[in-house]
Amino acid sequence: MRKILVLVAVLYSAAAIAQTPPPSPMIGDKPLVQVKPKGAKAKTAATEKPATPEKPKSMAGKLQACLEIDDATKERLNCYDAVFAPQPKPKAPAAKAVNDCRFVKEEDERLTCYNGFADKIPKLPQ
Q1: Which of 33, 36, 92, 93 is most buried, with most CB under 10 Å away?
Q2: Interval 75-115: pLDDT, tens
Q3: Number of other residues whose CB lies within 10 A of the CB of residue 5
Q4: What is the structure's pLDDT at 53?
Q5: What Cα–Cα distance (Å) separates residue 19 from each residue in 10, 13, 22, 92, 126?
Q6: Do residues 119 and 58 touch, judged by C-beta distance below 8 A?
Q7: b/e map of 72-91 (b: 16 or more CB within 10 Å)?
């Protein structure tokens, strides 16, 4: 009877030891860095968020989104400046395109310039 109990204890302990995960490989006293394959990252992102990816807005779409903000406000100018980063020049040439508005130094003039071009853009379908 004792021999059977000892045998069962040995077998259960061997099974318990076999189920513990092996320690991570070490180099010196630091753990070895393991890199996941590229496909694993994409699969986990796809399973976490099943929402449809949105199309990135075009420049025209971004400018039209700025038109929804109250006119002649700092917030609208900040919205335009987020699309085209301002690069003021002391003597800015006349704007021939919306991209040229970023060179205007005065904020009010720059806002008027952006508004003029943004108003001319035809409404895009949603």
Answers
A1: 92
A2: 999 999 999 999 999 888 888 999 999 999 999 999 999 99
A3: 9
A4: 60
A5: 14, 10, 9, 73, 56
A6: no
A7: eeeebbebbbebbeeeeeee
- Give the CA angle between residues 120, 71, 60 to the nearest 5°: 35
For the chain, where are the alpha helices, taking DSSP H only? 2-19, 38-48, 59-66, 74-83, 107-120
DSSP class of 101: G
35 φ, ψ to 5°?
-100, 135
Partnered with residue 26 across adjacent β-strands are 31
Q: What is the rounded distance in angstroms from the CA atom of residue 100 to the CA atom of residue 77? A: 15
| Dihedral of the alpha carbons of 87, 93, 97, 99, in degrees to the nearest 10 | -10
